[in-house]
Amino acid sequence: MDIVEVIKQRKSIRAFKPTPVPQEVLSRIAELALRAPSWANTQPWELAIVSGAKLEAIKEAFSTQHGARALPDFPGPEEFPEAYKNRFQNLAAKMSEAAKKGRRGKKAGEWYLQGPRLYGAPAAIYILIDRSFFEQRVGLNVYPVFDCGLLAQNIMLLATDHGLGTIIQAQAVHYPNVLRRMLGLPDSKLVLVGIAIGYPDWEDPINEFRSDREPVDSLVKWYGFD
Ligand SMILES: Cc1cc2nc3c(=O)[nH]c(=O)nc-3n(C[C@H](O)[C@H](O)[C@H](O)COP(=O)(O)O)c2cc1C
Question: How far is the CA of 167 from the centre of ligand 1 (A)?
Protein backbone atom coordinates (compact mmCIF):
# COMPACT_ATOMS: atom_id res chain seq x y z
CA MET A 1 0.00 0.00 0.00
CA ASP A 2 1.11 3.53 -0.70
CA ILE A 3 2.43 5.32 2.42
CA VAL A 4 -0.24 8.04 2.14
CA GLU A 5 -2.95 5.39 2.06
CA VAL A 6 -1.43 3.58 5.06
CA ILE A 7 -1.30 6.78 7.10
CA LYS A 8 -4.89 7.58 6.18
CA GLN A 9 -6.11 4.08 7.04
CA ARG A 10 -4.37 3.65 10.40
CA LYS A 11 -6.58 4.33 13.33
CA SER A 12 -6.97 2.85 16.76
CA ILE A 13 -8.94 -0.40 16.67
CA ARG A 14 -10.99 -1.27 19.74
CA ALA A 15 -12.54 -4.60 18.70
CA PHE A 16 -10.55 -7.44 17.16
CA LYS A 17 -11.40 -10.84 15.72
CA PRO A 18 -9.86 -13.74 17.68
CA THR A 19 -8.04 -14.98 14.52
CA PRO A 20 -4.37 -15.42 15.46
CA VAL A 21 -1.72 -13.34 13.69
CA PRO A 22 0.93 -15.65 12.17
CA GLN A 23 4.33 -15.35 13.83
CA GLU A 24 6.02 -14.76 10.47
CA VAL A 25 3.81 -11.71 9.85
CA LEU A 26 4.72 -10.26 13.26
CA SER A 27 8.35 -11.08 12.63
CA ARG A 28 8.34 -9.24 9.28
CA ILE A 29 6.66 -6.22 10.91
CA ALA A 30 9.22 -6.20 13.75
CA GLU A 31 12.18 -6.52 11.42
CA LEU A 32 11.12 -3.57 9.25
CA ALA A 33 9.87 -1.44 12.15
CA LEU A 34 13.28 -1.74 13.80
CA ARG A 35 14.66 0.39 10.93
CA ALA A 36 13.31 3.38 12.93
CA PRO A 37 15.83 6.12 13.65
CA SER A 38 17.19 6.61 17.17
CA TRP A 39 19.52 8.93 19.05
CA ALA A 40 23.05 8.14 17.71
CA ASN A 41 21.65 4.79 16.58
CA THR A 42 21.44 3.65 20.20
CA GLN A 43 18.35 1.53 19.34
CA PRO A 44 17.15 1.81 22.94
CA TRP A 45 14.33 -0.70 22.59
CA GLU A 46 13.48 -4.34 22.94
CA LEU A 47 10.21 -5.97 21.96
CA ALA A 48 8.27 -8.64 23.81
CA ILE A 49 5.77 -10.08 21.33
CA VAL A 50 3.11 -12.17 23.02
CA SER A 51 0.23 -14.32 21.78
CA GLY A 52 -1.73 -17.49 22.60
CA ALA A 53 -2.20 -18.80 26.14
CA LYS A 54 0.48 -16.46 27.52
CA LEU A 55 -1.40 -13.37 26.31
CA GLU A 56 -4.74 -14.72 27.51
CA ALA A 57 -3.19 -15.18 30.98
CA ILE A 58 -1.93 -11.57 30.89
CA LYS A 59 -5.38 -10.29 29.90
CA GLU A 60 -6.90 -12.27 32.76
CA ALA A 61 -4.38 -10.91 35.25
CA PHE A 62 -4.93 -7.33 34.02
CA SER A 63 -8.72 -7.55 34.21
CA THR A 64 -8.44 -8.94 37.73
CA GLN A 65 -6.16 -6.02 38.68
CA HIS A 66 -8.44 -3.48 36.92
CA GLY A 67 -9.55 -0.82 39.37
CA ALA A 68 -6.47 -1.30 41.55
CA ARG A 69 -4.08 1.66 41.46
CA ALA A 70 -2.04 1.55 38.26
CA LEU A 71 1.71 1.66 38.81
CA PRO A 72 3.13 2.13 35.30
CA ASP A 73 6.86 2.52 34.74
CA PHE A 74 6.04 5.68 32.75
CA PRO A 75 3.17 7.45 34.53
CA GLY A 76 0.55 9.22 32.44
CA PRO A 77 -0.34 12.91 32.78
CA GLU A 78 -2.03 14.08 35.99
CA GLU A 79 -3.02 17.46 34.57
CA PHE A 80 -4.58 18.45 31.27
CA PRO A 81 -4.38 22.15 30.37
CA GLU A 82 -7.62 23.38 28.74
CA ALA A 83 -6.82 22.69 25.04
CA TYR A 84 -5.75 19.13 25.79
CA LYS A 85 -8.67 18.55 28.13
CA ASN A 86 -11.10 19.55 25.36
CA ARG A 87 -9.52 17.11 22.91
CA PHE A 88 -9.49 14.33 25.50
CA GLN A 89 -13.16 14.95 26.38
CA ASN A 90 -14.11 15.01 22.73
CA LEU A 91 -12.50 11.59 22.23
CA ALA A 92 -14.13 10.21 25.39
CA ALA A 93 -17.57 11.36 24.19
CA LYS A 94 -17.13 9.78 20.76
CA MET A 95 -15.81 6.59 22.27
CA SER A 96 -18.56 6.16 24.83
CA GLU A 97 -21.26 6.82 22.22
CA ALA A 98 -19.72 4.21 19.91
CA ALA A 99 -19.21 1.77 22.82
CA LYS A 100 -22.93 1.89 23.64
CA LYS A 101 -23.69 0.75 20.09
CA GLY A 102 -20.84 -1.77 20.14
CA ARG A 103 -21.46 -5.44 20.84
CA ARG A 104 -19.11 -5.51 23.79
CA GLY A 105 -20.60 -2.39 25.38
CA LYS A 106 -24.09 -3.76 25.76
CA LYS A 107 -23.66 -5.28 29.20
CA ALA A 108 -22.92 -2.80 32.00
CA GLY A 109 -19.28 -2.78 33.00
CA GLU A 110 -18.24 -5.00 30.14
CA TRP A 111 -16.80 -2.19 28.02
CA TYR A 112 -14.43 -1.05 30.79
CA LEU A 113 -12.80 -4.45 30.85
CA GLN A 114 -12.07 -4.29 27.14
CA GLY A 115 -9.03 -2.04 27.62
CA PRO A 116 -7.22 -4.36 30.07
CA ARG A 117 -8.26 -7.22 27.78
CA LEU A 118 -6.56 -5.49 24.84
CA TYR A 119 -9.93 -5.12 23.10
CA GLY A 120 -9.79 -8.82 22.28
CA ALA A 121 -6.55 -8.63 20.27
CA PRO A 122 -4.87 -12.01 19.76
CA ALA A 123 -1.35 -10.55 19.97
CA ALA A 124 0.49 -7.73 21.69
CA ILE A 125 3.83 -6.06 21.20
CA TYR A 126 5.30 -4.61 24.38
CA ILE A 127 8.08 -2.04 23.97
CA LEU A 128 10.79 -2.25 26.63
CA ILE A 129 13.51 0.24 27.58
CA ASP A 130 16.52 -0.62 29.69
CA ARG A 131 16.36 1.25 33.00
CA SER A 132 20.07 2.13 32.83
CA PHE A 133 19.59 4.30 29.74
CA PHE A 134 16.42 6.05 30.95
CA GLU A 135 17.31 6.73 34.59
CA GLN A 136 20.54 8.73 34.45
CA ARG A 137 22.73 9.74 37.38
CA VAL A 138 21.15 13.20 37.02
CA GLY A 139 17.55 13.25 35.76
CA LEU A 140 15.93 11.23 33.04
CA ASN A 141 17.01 10.64 29.46
CA VAL A 142 13.79 11.17 27.49
CA TYR A 143 15.27 10.20 24.13
CA PRO A 144 14.69 6.44 24.42
CA VAL A 145 11.00 7.23 24.95
CA PHE A 146 11.00 9.51 21.92
CA ASP A 147 12.81 6.89 19.80
CA CYS A 148 10.37 4.18 20.87
CA GLY A 149 7.54 6.42 19.64
CA LEU A 150 9.09 6.31 16.19
CA LEU A 151 9.34 2.53 16.43
CA ALA A 152 5.74 2.26 17.60
CA GLN A 153 4.43 4.26 14.66
CA ASN A 154 6.44 2.09 12.27
CA ILE A 155 4.87 -1.01 13.82
CA MET A 156 1.36 0.40 13.48
CA LEU A 157 1.83 1.55 9.87
CA LEU A 158 3.38 -1.76 8.83
CA ALA A 159 0.56 -3.65 10.54
CA THR A 160 -1.97 -1.55 8.62
CA ASP A 161 -0.17 -2.45 5.41
CA HIS A 162 -0.68 -6.14 6.32
CA GLY A 163 -4.44 -5.64 6.78
CA LEU A 164 -4.04 -5.71 10.56
CA GLY A 165 -5.41 -3.28 13.12
CA THR A 166 -3.59 -1.88 16.13
CA ILE A 167 -4.09 0.21 19.20
CA ILE A 168 -1.22 1.55 21.24
CA GLN A 169 -2.27 1.34 24.88
CA ALA A 170 -1.04 2.84 28.11
CA GLN A 171 -3.61 0.55 29.74
CA ALA A 172 -1.68 -2.45 28.45
CA VAL A 173 1.21 -1.58 30.77
CA HIS A 174 -0.60 -0.30 33.88
CA TYR A 175 0.84 -3.16 35.93
CA PRO A 176 4.41 -3.67 34.67
CA ASN A 177 5.30 -5.90 37.61
CA VAL A 178 2.65 -8.36 36.44
CA LEU A 179 4.15 -8.30 32.94
CA ARG A 180 7.71 -8.70 34.25
CA ARG A 181 6.64 -11.64 36.36
CA MET A 182 4.60 -13.35 33.64
CA LEU A 183 7.19 -12.77 30.91
CA GLY A 184 10.19 -13.52 33.12
CA LEU A 185 11.69 -10.05 32.60
CA PRO A 186 14.23 -8.61 35.03
CA ASP A 187 13.52 -5.40 36.97
CA SER A 188 16.00 -3.62 34.71
CA LYS A 189 13.50 -3.78 31.81
CA LEU A 190 10.99 -0.96 31.90
CA VAL A 191 7.76 -1.54 30.01
CA LEU A 192 6.95 1.61 28.07
CA VAL A 193 3.80 0.73 26.19
CA GLY A 194 1.87 -2.11 24.59
CA ILE A 195 0.46 -2.32 21.09
CA ALA A 196 -2.52 -4.63 20.69
CA ILE A 197 -2.52 -6.13 17.23
CA GLY A 198 -4.91 -8.32 15.24
CA TYR A 199 -7.53 -8.40 12.52
CA PRO A 200 -10.13 -5.67 13.08
CA ASP A 201 -13.72 -6.66 13.77
CA TRP A 202 -15.35 -4.21 11.36
CA GLU A 203 -18.81 -5.45 12.38
CA ASP A 204 -18.39 -3.82 15.77
CA PRO A 205 -19.57 -0.15 15.72
CA ILE A 206 -16.74 0.81 18.13
CA ASN A 207 -14.43 0.67 15.11
CA GLU A 208 -16.58 3.08 13.08
CA PHE A 209 -15.66 6.43 14.57
CA ARG A 210 -12.57 8.41 13.63
CA SER A 211 -10.81 10.66 16.09
CA ASP A 212 -10.71 14.37 15.17
CA ARG A 213 -7.69 16.45 14.33
CA GLU A 214 -7.19 20.17 14.80
CA PRO A 215 -7.16 22.20 11.56
CA VAL A 216 -3.66 22.26 10.09
CA ASP A 217 -3.58 26.10 10.11
CA SER A 218 -4.04 26.19 13.88
CA LEU A 219 -0.96 24.00 14.44
CA VAL A 220 1.43 24.86 11.62
CA LYS A 221 3.16 28.22 11.25
CA TRP A 222 5.19 29.05 8.17
CA TYR A 223 8.34 31.15 8.17
CA GLY A 224 10.39 32.50 5.28
CA PHE A 225 8.05 31.45 2.50
CA ASP A 226 7.06 34.95 1.27
C1 LIG B 1 1.03 6.58 24.22
C2 LIG B 1 -0.41 6.29 23.90
C3 LIG B 1 -1.18 5.59 24.81
C4 LIG B 1 -2.52 5.29 24.52
N5 LIG B 1 -3.25 4.55 25.41
C6 LIG B 1 -4.53 4.20 25.10
C7 LIG B 1 -5.28 3.38 26.00
O8 LIG B 1 -4.80 2.97 27.05
N9 LIG B 1 -6.55 3.04 25.66
C10 LIG B 1 -7.13 3.47 24.48
O11 LIG B 1 -8.30 3.14 24.20
N12 LIG B 1 -6.42 4.25 23.61
C13 LIG B 1 -5.15 4.62 23.88
N14 LIG B 1 -4.40 5.36 23.00
C15 LIG B 1 -4.97 5.66 21.67
C16 LIG B 1 -5.40 7.13 21.52
O17 LIG B 1 -6.60 7.35 22.20
C18 LIG B 1 -5.55 7.41 20.01
O19 LIG B 1 -4.31 7.24 19.37
C20 LIG B 1 -6.05 8.83 19.76
O21 LIG B 1 -7.36 8.98 20.26
C22 LIG B 1 -6.04 9.15 18.26
O23 LIG B 1 -6.89 8.25 17.57
P24 LIG B 1 -6.37 7.32 16.40
O25 LIG B 1 -5.25 6.47 16.94
O26 LIG B 1 -7.57 6.49 16.02
O27 LIG B 1 -5.88 8.19 15.29
C28 LIG B 1 -3.09 5.71 23.28
C29 LIG B 1 -2.30 6.44 22.37
C30 LIG B 1 -0.97 6.71 22.67
C31 LIG B 1 -0.14 7.45 21.63
Answer: 6
